[in-house]
Request: fold
Amino acid sequence: MSCRHRYTVSVDGASLAFWDEGEGPVVVLTNGFANTTLYWEPVRQRLRNNWRVIRWDLRGHGQSGAVRDRETMTIAGCADDLRRVMDAAGVDKAVLAGFSLGCQIVLEAWRHFPERIDGLVPALGPCERPFDTLIHPAVGPLVYELYKAVPSSIWGTGLKLGALGSWLKPVHAVAKKIGFVGVDVSLAEMKPFYTHLAGIDIPSWYLLGLAAQQHSARDVLGDIEVPTLVVAGGSDRFSPGELGRQIAGEIPQARLLWLEDATHTGLFDERKRISDAFERFMQQVYGEPTTIQKAAGGE
Reply:
């Protein structure tokens, strides 16, 4: 199956990398903080057989360029980047799925261009201020104060050191021990994530963290008028599952997929259940894939 690797540009002139594959109705996958499209791999592998799948990198992450105008590195700015990716791909309407911080981005997209959204899938993420509930309500705000206080250059050094080959095994072991990574997720699966951290543009990453904490899309939840699938993990330490339950309760047409044992790597932990639910959701929005569409999108 061919995968079209393309670029467009943000409002500040930074390059935006995206990948486009499959045929038929479209789902656009938006990444989380300090992430690339890696976490979407299990879902992408499943959906591309029957649907057109577009994934993209946030500014300063993966293969997208660094932020050029810091004033544009907001959640609304990221939603505008998402719109520009859709424009460049020639996509008028799509299902928008977001992982982690990507949930804030796709929910913000509803504020700015609801007419281009056929459905929403916020997965394992919040609708606002992610540091408020990170790990524990008494811990997350303190982490944010530390995040603001420590120069971004020092954070950058830490990310680069953590991506060194000699550190990968202990880093992965600790991440599993404290519940940040699912117990069944292998080092081989997570290695591309760990190693990509060294390539993140630190100023872009730092600004995005500040922007996320200053953002809320809670006010738009009650206005969402399209089918919505909210994925929440009962063992998620980054974005507690109860946040997902709250989001699903405030969106009129939302359905909650509750995964009791899923951590923040739930897209790996529970790949089959999440991919199955995604497939059913796409069928709910667009109907069964046609025979021609299956033939065009299959292996």
About this structure: The domain at 3-297 is CATH 3.40.50.1820 (Rossmann fold). The chain is about 40% helix and 15% strand.
